[in-house]
Each structure stands twice: as C-alpha cells, then as structure tokens.
Task: inverse folding
C-alpha cells in the first residue's frame, strides 16, 4: 500500500512566456518554447512525493517521445509508475502561455489521458489517500471515488478543470478542493472573495461532503465544514509563474495530513508549497521539496 495514489493525467506542457495574452485573431511574439513535465495528476504526485511520502500513479501516456519524458521524470521523483501504461494515442499535452505577471492560460489536448478507464482503476494498488482531478474521463473518476471510498481510503477531489459534479460523485468524496472559479461553477454562484466563497461552499456541504477547502490564490485558503469556517493566510512571494501552484498545494496538504497534522496546519503547509511553486517557472520543476518548504516556513 502506498500513502497516496493519484489516478489522473500526465501532460507535456508546451510553454511560451509572452509579454501578454494575445487577443482573438492576433499574433504576438513570445520567448523560446519550453517543454516541461506537467498534467494535474502527475504534478500532484510529484508534489506529494517531494514531501517524502510514498506515491503511486495510475494513468496513461501515448506511444510518442513525450511518454518516456514524463514517466522518467515521475520515476526520478520517486513516484511508482508501475500503473502508468502506454496506449495507442498521442501523449496528453497542454499549450500554455504565461504572461509577464505570471498568470497562465492553458489549452489541453487530452490524448492518452482521455483513455484512462475503470479497468485501470481496478488493477491499482491500495492507498491511504486517493487524489483525483478532472483531466481524465469523469466516469473513471466516479468509479475510482466509489471503489476507494468503499475501501476506507480518504478521497480528495480537485474539480479542475472546472466541470459540474453529479450528486453521486459528491457522495463519494471526503475533501473537495476547488479554486474560486471552480467553486463558482459548482455552486452556480459568483465567488469573488472570502465571504462569497464561504456562502458557496456552505451550500455545497448540503450535498454530503465533509470538508471543502477553497484555494484563493494570494488570499490563502478557506476551510469549510459543518462545524466551522477557517481562513488560512498564505505567504507573500514574488510570483514568476502560477502554473501548478494549486497542484503543489494539494500534494503538500495531503502529505501533511498523512503526518497527522491538523486540517488547519495541513492547509497552512499546503499554502507554503503553493506559494513556493509560484516563485519558479514551469509545472513540475517549480514544485518545492520538503527541505525547501521547511526552510521557507522557518
Ligand atoms: O495545473 C497545472 C497543469 O494544468 C499544467 O501542468 C498543465 O498540464 C495542465 O494540466
């Protein structure tokens, strides 16, 4: 059994830094193209593994040169890749533009990620925590949540990229971690600040979720459960690129929970991981190690 199992996506991120985002129909010049290991699933796996917990990944890559690039990088980060299989398809890619303020804009081409099935879930190892996102088919996410919840695994869902969630899926999730725009879609109300995040998250709790953690970027995170609402501040840093900050938060938060830290302490730890990830360029290269996080916090 591993501490954390991630069932999710692996992407080759094709990234260009640009002074600003192009308008529709406009062509602008950016810097040289960089190809960087990414994908929300793989990023969260690396983020947790860099905090020293054991992590296994279930997913699919294609039969092209990006496949070994992504799998080798997971292996180099001590992630167990026995359950990442190769499939007749292109490997998932993400076309990313990062502007001068470090914000990104992403278009996904799912490729092999779109072929992760219930069968992949059924042959996966047990774990204490399961991390799920929405870059693989939603039926597979539902199947995984159902199977692992019934085994007693803590199921954490990051509903990104934003998609509506069925009542059935919500009923198998222990902790939901949306950002503001994902929470807006799920709750069908505008989330623009801490107060509106609280109202929207409380509405979602009625659907049977135990805990919702709303990530609020530079405003930290909000923990909402049936007993309390707690706002956790984050750290002020110089932002270079926000890509994978949310993934870094989730990996760090989950690893802290496994080390028996309280929910609030774990969220604070996740915030440190997320903040540090924004200080470097790219997805997986920006994710901090345990030593970096401990030094930063102290
Ligand atoms: O969360 C960041 C990730 O989203 C990127 O690495 C990209 O692959 C997209 O999936």
Result:
């Amino acid at each position: 059994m591993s501490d954390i199992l991630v069932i999710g996506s692996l992407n080759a991120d094709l990234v260009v830094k640009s002074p600003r985002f192009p308008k529709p129909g406009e062509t602008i010049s950016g810097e040289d193209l960089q190809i960087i290991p990414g994908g929300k699933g793989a990023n969260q796996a690396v983020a947790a593994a860099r905090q020293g917990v054991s992590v296994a990944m279930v997913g699919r890559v294609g039969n092209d040169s990006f496949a070994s690039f992504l799998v080798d990088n997971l292996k180099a980060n001590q992630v167990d890749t026995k359950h990442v299989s190769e499939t007749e398809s292109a490997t998932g890619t993400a076309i990313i533009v990062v502007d001068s303020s470090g914000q990104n804009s992403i278009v996904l081409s799912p490729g092999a990620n779109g072929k992760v099935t219930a069968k992949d879930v059924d042959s996966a190892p047990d774990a204490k925590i399961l991390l799920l996102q929405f870059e693989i088919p939603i039926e597979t996410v539902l199947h995984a949540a159902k199977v692992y919840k019934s085994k007693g695994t803590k199921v954490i869902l990051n509903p990104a990229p934003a998609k509506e969630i069925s009542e059935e899926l919500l009923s198998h999730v222990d902790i939901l971690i949306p950002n503001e725009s994902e929470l807006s879609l799920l709750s069908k109300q505008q989330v623009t600040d801490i107060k509106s995040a609280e109202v929207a998250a409380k509405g979602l709790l009625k659907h049977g979720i135990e805990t919702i953690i709303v990530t609020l970027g530079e405003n930290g995170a909000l923990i909402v459960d049936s007993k309390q609402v707690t706002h956790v501040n984050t750290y002020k840093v110089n932002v270079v690129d926000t890509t994978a900050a949310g993934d870094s938060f989730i990996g760090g938060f989950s690893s802290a929970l496994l080390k028996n830290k309280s929910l609030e302490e774990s969220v604070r730890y996740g915030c440190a991981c997320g903040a540090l990830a924004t200080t470097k360029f790219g997805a997986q290269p920006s994710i901090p190690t345990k030593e970096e996080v401990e030094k930063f916090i102290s």
The mean pLDDT is 97. The pocket of alpha-D-ribofuranose is lined by residues 11, 13, 38-40, 43, 94, 106, 108, 135, 243-244, 246-247, 283 (CB under 6 Å).
